[in-house]
Each structure stands twice: as C-alpha cells, then as structure tokens.
Design goal:
Blueprint (H helix, E strand, L loop, with lengths): L10 H4 L13 H6 L12 E5 L1 H7 L6 E5 L4 E7 L2 E9 L2 E11 L4 H19 L3 E11 L2 E11 L11 E9 L8 E9 L10 H8 L2 E2 L2
Antiparallel strand pairs: 1-2, 2-10, 3-4, 4-5, 5-9, 6-7, 7-8, 8-9
Length: about 220
C-alpha cells in the first residue's frame, strides 16, 4: 500500500501527546444532581461509565461519560495520564480491534482540529516512517459532527508483541456540550488483516453512537 509520509494516532501513544491537563472542577451541588444509576444499556450487553469522582481519584481532567460495548471486547480502565479507558479484542493474543478514550483539552471545534493536527506532527517526529496519515477532516457520523483523522500504522518496528502487521486508526474528538466537562479523544485501531476498508465500519459506528456525556 502506498501512503503519504505522516503519523498515526495510535491508542497507546495518543494520550501522551496532549499533556497540558486542565483540571475542571464541579461544585458539590452539581455532582449530586448526576444520577449514574439511571444510565441504561440500549444496544450492547455491557456499559462502561467514567464518573466525576473517578476523574478526581485518577487526577485526570474532569469529565463524565458512558459507552456501551459488545461481549467480544474486554474493558480496562487506564487510571493514569494515558486517559480513561480502553476496549480490546484479541485473536491469538494479537490485537485486532482496540478502542481508547482519553481527554481533549479543546472544547472549541476549530481549536480541537488544530490540537489533533499538532498532536500528529509530534508523533510523526517521534515515530517516523512507520506512520502515515490518510486524511484529517470534519465528518458526520450517526448525524453527529466529529473531527476525524484516519491513519495507518506499520508495527514491524514496535517493541510490542501485542500487535502484528498493519493497522488503520480512526481518531476523533468529541466536544463536550457543557463547559464543565472535558472533551474526549476516541481512537479506533483495527487490524487491516481483518478488514481492509479505510472507513469506520458498522460495528465501530454503533459503539461510537453509544458514547454520551453525562451531565
């Protein structure tokens, strides 16, 4: 595959690029209004919830959201500056699908676009020719507007036995509807050996459609 020289936003690396952490705060009255017990599954069998209290405990930018996921994905909370959580699907101990959610300090669409672009310039400088960008654009997914970066990763030089071959990575910024909650960066990493289509597929968009801020 011939690709332009650039860089991918890879789930493991993307969280380290936006290191200027803004610690939003919510007063106790607002925190008490949010009832996480009312969050129900609508499509998939499982749901992950990140709460305001979790963000404070992990010393991460304050946000609050839920995301549903199917049984073939396993959930891991990062609990570190990497971000909030990841969902992983393995085959013979090799990652074939990975979804990572971290923070975006840009809650203005124009700034979010350049934040994603600048993050990738830093990653290109760090990782070189194993990464290539396909495009960076505004797009509508499930009637919702996102900033979408599509990239390619070649894993032959990665010091990890969890990945094999080439991957396509879709990185998006979801802007928070309220000033008090930090926006999100979401990355879908998929093995090209499983699916060579360089677009988000139905499986991925259905998961993305369940991602909602809680406020």
């Amino acid at each position: 595959m011939k690709i332009n020289k650039f860089l991918i936003v890879f789930v493991i690396f993307i969280a380290s690029c936006d290191i200027s952490i803004q610690k939003n705060t919510l007063n106790e009255q607002k925190k008490q209004v949010i009832n996480y017990n009312n969050i129900n599954k609508t499509i998939f069998d499982n749901i992950a919830i990140v709460t305001i209290d979790s963000c404070e405990k992990w010393m991460l930018p304050i946000t609050s959201f839920s995301i549903e996921y199917p049984n073939d994905l396993s959930l891991k909370y990062y609990n570190t500056e990497k971000g909030y959580l990841e969902l992983v699907k393995l085959s013979n101990n090799i990652v074939i699908e990975q979804i990572g959610i971290t923070y975006s300090n840009s809650n203005i669409r124009r700034k979010a676009y350049y934040s994603l672009l600048n993050s990738n310039l830093e990653l290109e400088k760090k990782f070189g020719d194993d990464y290539a960008t396909i495009n960076l654009k505004y797009t509508n997914i499930n009637n919702k507007k996102y900033i979408l970066l599509t990239s390619i990763l070649q894993t032959k030089n990665l010091k990890s036995n969890k990945y094999s071959g080439e991957y396509v990575v879709f990185s998006l910024i979801k802007i928070s509807p309220v000033e008090s909650l930090t926006g999100l960066k979401i990355s879908f990493t998929r093995s090209l050996e499983q699916n060579e289509i360089l677009e988000l597929n139905k499986y991925e968009t259905e998961i993305l459609n369940t991602l909602n801020f809680i406020y």
